[in-house]
Amino acid sequence: MNTSVKAALAAPSTGKGVMKDPWLDRTKAFAGRFSVRTKIIGIVLLLTTILGLGITWQVRNAMSSLVESELTVRAETIALEVAVHVADPVANQDIATVAGILEDAVSSHPDAMFALVSRPDGLIVARATTPSVGTPGDTLTDVLADQSIQVAGLHIVSVPIPDQGGTVTYGLTDKRLERTVNGVTLQLLLTTLFVGAIGVLAATLLTWLLTRPIVDLVRTTHKVGEGDLTARATVASEDEIGELAEAFNTMVNELETSRSTIAETEQMRTLLLERLIGAQEDERKRIARELHDGIGQSLTSIMLASSLIARSTSKDERDDYATRIREASADTLKQVRRLGRELRPSVLDDLGLGAALDRHVAEFQLRCPEISTEIHCHLPTRLEPLIETALYRVVQEAMTNVARHSGARTVSILIGLRSGAVRAIIEDDGTGFDPDAVRSDGASVGIHGMLERIELLGGRLDIESSDHGTTIYAQVPLSSNAPVGT
User: Fold this and answer.
1) For residue 249, what are the domain limits?
2) Which pLDDT score, from 0 to 100, does residue 477 have?
3) Residue 470 belongs to a domain with what CATH number?
4) I need a surface site. Which of 93, 173, 259, 324 has the fewest CB within 10 A?
5) CATH of residue 128
6) Does a structural domain hold residue 60?
7) Continuous segment of H or E residues that includes residue 40
8) pLDDT per position as a tens digit, 245-279
9) Which strand (E) or helix (H) includes residue 202?
10) Which residues lie closer than 8 Å to 362 by C-beta, 6 or more apart?
11) In a domain, 473, yes or no
């Protein structure tokens, strides 16, 4: 066998390529045209009809079988009784007595059609019949072959006459009992119709109770889809539909909260952008002012000293001017390096976050000697540049806020790795503030800037503050595709 054929036969079936049953699809499409209420009512009506007709058919068959067996037994019993009673009159050739006995046997049973007494050769000795049968034939064979007694439901029984050699033939019809069976069948059909009507009413009530909350839920869904997040589904019960309505309301509540959060975030971002642009312009003004007042003046001093050297004739004066030029140049270089560190510390790119923070803390202590500062940075390896920059700016902004607003005496910084994320904790013992109020009114560009930096990296920034101090928790996942949970 070909290898590809073997592989195809051995491969498990995935369900692809299997022909779908068109009748099943058509049935599903047809059923899908009707509402749930119509389907339930139709199913109840169909089941009631099938059950009622099935019971009626079984009862009718059972009664018909019972009627047939009972008529046969009755005919045999009556024929045996007649045979016993006519034995002596037949032996005495008393035909009148025999005829009387036959008349009594036919008239005493409403289902009797005829009664015959015949000799062994088949010649009828005496008979009794109903008006509908008449007097057909002279022999038993003629009577049985006559068309007037060939009717449906006729039960004919022949029994021998004791010790005489003759035969008693008795015929019963089941028309009367058949009418009774038909009447019972009609009653069962009417009962089925009545039960079906009650079933339809009950199904209508049941579907109304079931579909009313569903219809209300659909209506509420349309309202929510149109943007009305104040719409809520009515929870009318504690069943599965009630649970569905509660779950839908919970989803709408979360959606409303998400929309409010998104709107608030967009508003804060707009405000933050405006403030950042303003802060950027202020920073540019500060840098321009420092370039003009500091570096500009130093360069001016260098230019003046250089021109004085050129005009000076004294060696001592030239040496003095050269010293001034070197000092001004060193001061200018120092200012340029300071501005560079403020804009972007090179040590952050060269040595990493730990070294950059150590230098920043050292400069912070020089500017604010009244604040005791300690830092513990436990990072075994370098982090991604974006993460290092974000954490550096967060710590920088937090320490700036401590110096400006908190009145703290001590501040500590702890940075380390935990559960696939890097965490920074900045804690001080100064005067606290209300973080929620600051976030809502957008008064602090620095705090919103920290939030934006951390959230852009998929992290979290939490602020806890009280009268005893403030603690900032910043956590960023080491992988940008793995957001930090709670």
Assistant:
1) 230-271
2) 92
3) 3.30.565.10
4) 93
5) 3.30.450.20
6) yes
7) helix 36-91
8) 888 888 888 888 888 777 777 777 777 677 667 66
9) helix 175-225
10) none
11) yes
- Same-domain check for residues 54 and 186: yes
Look at residue 288 and tell me if it is in a domain: no
In sequence order, which ranges of 92-149 are alpha helices (DSSP H)? Answer: 95-107, 140-145
Say yes or no: 150 and 247 in one domain.
Answer: no
The structure's pTM equals 0.43
* Calpha distance 143→348 (Å, rounded): 128
Give pLDDT tens digits for 302-324.
777 777 777 776 777 777 878 87
Distance of alpha carbon 98 from alpha carbon 52, whole angstroms = 51
What total number of domains does the chain contain? 3
Q: What is the pLDDT of residues 67-100, one digit of tens each?
A: 888 888 888 888 888 888 888 888 888 888 888 9
Where b means 16+ CB within 10 Å and e means fewer, 92-127 reads: eeeeebbbbbbeebbeeeebbbbbbbbbeebebbbb
> Dihedral sign, CA of 114, 119, 123, 125?
negative
Element (H, E) at 295: none
